[in-house]
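User: Batch of two.

Assistant: Item 1 of 2:
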Amino acid sequence: MSLLACALCAAVAAAGTVTVDPGHNGGNAAHPEAINRLVPAGGFRKACDTVGAQTSDGRLTEHAFTWDVARRLQAALAARGATVRLTRPDDAGVGPCVDRRAALGAGSDVAISLHADGGPPSGRGFHVIRATRANAAHPGTLRPSLRLARLVRARLDAIGLRRSTYAGRAGLDARADLGGLNLSPVPKVLVELGNLRNAADARALKRPGHRAAIARALARALAAF
């Protein structure tokens, strides 16, 4: 094998494997019996999943937004040589449940869950969430998850996204109630990429160019990690 070929193999290997978890799913609303059933969430049980948020005009749903950004992020990471796993194959299914989403990260180097919040209409901005020690099934992931959270925040700052004015502190948050983080066997964060209920955030989140910029920023953060 040539030196160039060996160098390319090493670059791909170094890029690693990333699990991308687009929040919610397009079929959830039609199947409450499935998404309302209780599943393990880290020392307690919680609903399998939820329908997710949407803009006040109903023109953009969280599940459609996260699916679009996930596909853009998948392409950006693949271009860097990474292997990318998605936790759902499309935006027409149901679930998977939060415990399954966490389990799907096994074997990856890192995982990220994509969301857009349904917060107070007066609040705007992004925040990055990590698990706390209280309910973490894999405590060894906590420190690298904090490092990942800071990298994601830095890259979103760099493209001009505003940090949340209503959740967390300085764009970061730590929560013990999210099963997808509590049960993750690999370093993982959940990023709320804006507030769908806020008019200014909603306008930005609807723009394809804005979503593309977010995906590129997240790819840079994951590559740096």
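Item 2 of 2:
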Amino acid sequence: MTYQSDNPELIDSTKTGREEKSQAKSQKLAAFLAHGGVASRRRAEELILNKKVKVNGQVENNVARRVIPGLDVVEYQGKTITIQEEKVILAINKPPGVVSTVNDPDGKPTVMKYIPPQYQDLRLFPVGRLDELSEGLILLTNDGDLAYKLSHPKYQSPRTYQVNITGRLSSTELRCLQSGIQLKDGRTQGADVIVVDETNSGQILEITIKEGRHHQIRRMMQALNHEVLRLVRLSHGPYELGNLPSGQWRLEKSK
């Protein structure tokens, strides 16, 4: 026989631990995956939609699903995900010829090879992309919130590049870059452009953009009939390449 009290205070005191925790600690599944170092929040949503994530043994494809850390069991690639307390940010000076992904199906070297041994067990992932031919700053982190803020278009996080081009920009071309270039995927936002130096073959520019389109700067220059000879990312948001040597890493503080 089950006894049910008509005393509201007694009924409230018998709430399950799950009910109490759900009110205080539930969070969206994508945020949980990001905090657990699986991927950025945006990428985590894609993983959920593509049915790559399980919650309590069941495949979950609802990005609005909320979970309770410590009670719900979340799995990705057969591993149970737990929220990592230690947040790590590594700055890498990516050499050309290295891809900025966790894995490459063609077996090309990735930025993951530059993670030092003491951080190999953490689920670090690249923040954004830097194409294979380009070099310079790329961040690796297990902080999903940071990756989201640096990558999502709504935050307009600036990225600055040193760009060596063939030929010299005319005043008209410079104005075009500053006001926006029409590309196949739409018009770009205006870029900040500084002519740093001139060489026998062309110019060295410093370009700052607040978008992260695929090969954006190379395509902008191609639209103006200039070839990019070298492209180096100097900064991403508040993080700077500085004097970090090619192929080396540096531990960064959260900014």
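The CA atoms of residues 88 and 141 lie 5 Å apart.
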